[in-house]
Specification:
The chain is α/β, with parallel strands linked by helices and 325 residues long. It has helices spanning 3-22, 26-40, 95-109, 128-142, 157-171, 194-198, 211-219, 253-265, 290-309, and strands spanning 47-55, 65-73, 77-85, 111-116, 150-155, 179-183, 242-247, 270-275. An 8-stranded mixed β-sheet has the order 1-2-4-3-5-6-7-8, with helices on both faces. The two termini are 14 Å apart. 52% of the residues are buried.
């Protein structure tokens, strides 16, 4: 483990994990994430950002507009796009906190990324985030993108939201995206995954004892096993290629393993990468941590390959890596 990663893990354990364990008001989490990310994120050279809005379908539950940011780096192929969902436990985060990661991933893939500000709990409980994800995907289709020109991406809760959206697309019989790339997806909100106990102390960021509370903020009385809430329970039909990255030491590692197993059981091509010694959703530190840079580069190459070839994408070899190289 390099000195920079050691220092990051120590800071996360002593400051971030400790703070999250004591935090009482979700509004404090929102404010802290905006403040800390603004201080820590490093905008890539050549990054470009454009604000936009996405219209929700006109029914009483989904009125209004969804703010969004288009992120790119260099000279992207404007015909292809990554629909990227930020992390933050469905309680915090925004297109602002993740625009640097969106730009870096888009640059690595040679395309653009759009990051919607989906509605957050506790003000907007499940399925508001999923409804906004569906609206964002439909917006791209209506804007003229073919499904083979759209990839899904996300980290943590946003990674779980990628697969919830994929399940919603399947149920609505919409055309499926070209590929999915998720970093540390939170995809099992039941609190039953074995890694929650196994990695409770090893995880340097997430206080496991608070996850059930966080899930309740988002889900309320909804069924935690509903596939749109916990997509590890989805029954997939011909899913698109997926890249899933997680750390072996994070509390929700088993979410990634379960997702990969479910997708493979349905005939999906899945590249599962389990990295050693990394914190939860470490690609957020792109530009400041070598392992984050490599993860984003790997994900960008994966998405580029499938966006460029669409249905003729070469089959990915199932992979599991310890080093992340």
């Amino acid at each position: 483990m390099g000195l920079r990663l050691y220092a990051l893990n120590l800071w996360l354990r002593l400051v971030v994990k400790s703070g999250l364990a004591k935090m009482k008001d979700p509004a404090d989490l929102k404010e802290r994430m905006e403040r800390d990310t603004a201080r820590l994120m490093l905008i890539p050279d050549g990054a470009h950002f454009v604000s936009d809005v996405i219209r929700r379908p006109g029914n009483p539950r989904q009125v209004g507009m969804i703010d969004a940011i288009w992120a790119s780096k260099g000279r992207p192929d404007r015909r292809k796009v990554i629909l990227y969902f930020h992390g933050g436990a469905y309680l915090a985060g925004s297109s602002r906190t993740h625009r640097h990661l969106g730009a870096a991933l888009a640059g690595a893939a040679g395309v653009r990324a759009v990051l919607p500000d989906y509605r957050l709990a506790p003000e907007h409980q499940f399925p508001a985030a999923v409804d906004d994800a569906i609206a964002s995907y439909r917006h791209l289709l209506e804007a003229g993108y073919d499904a083979s020109e759209i990839a899904l991406g996300g980290d943590s809760a946003g990674g779980g939201l990628c697969f919830a959206l994929l399940y919603a697309i399947q149920k609505r019989k919409l055309p499926k995206p070209a590929a999915v790339a998720a970093f540390s997806p939170w995809a099992d909100l039941t609190g039953e995954a074995a890694s929650l106990e196994r990695n409770a102390n090893r995880d340097v960021m997430l206080p496991v004892r608070r996850l059930d509370e966080v899930a309740e903020y988002y889900l309320g009385s909804a069924d935690r096993r509903h596939p749109l809430a916990s997509p590890v329970f989805a029954k997939w039909e011909a899913p698109p290629p997926a890249l899933i990255m997680a750390s072996r030491s994070e509390a929700i590692m088993d979410d990634s393993v379960a997702l990969a197993e479910g997708l493979r059981a349905a005939g999906g091509d899945v590249q599962l990468e389990l990295w050693r010694g990394l914190p939860h959703a470490w690609p957020i530190f792109v530009g400041r941590l070598g392992e984050a840079d490599r993860a984003v580069a790997n994900a960008g190459a994966f998405l580029s390959r499938h966006l460029k070839t669409g249905d003729d994408a070469e089959t990915m070899v199932n992979a599991e890596t310890d080093s992340g190289s």
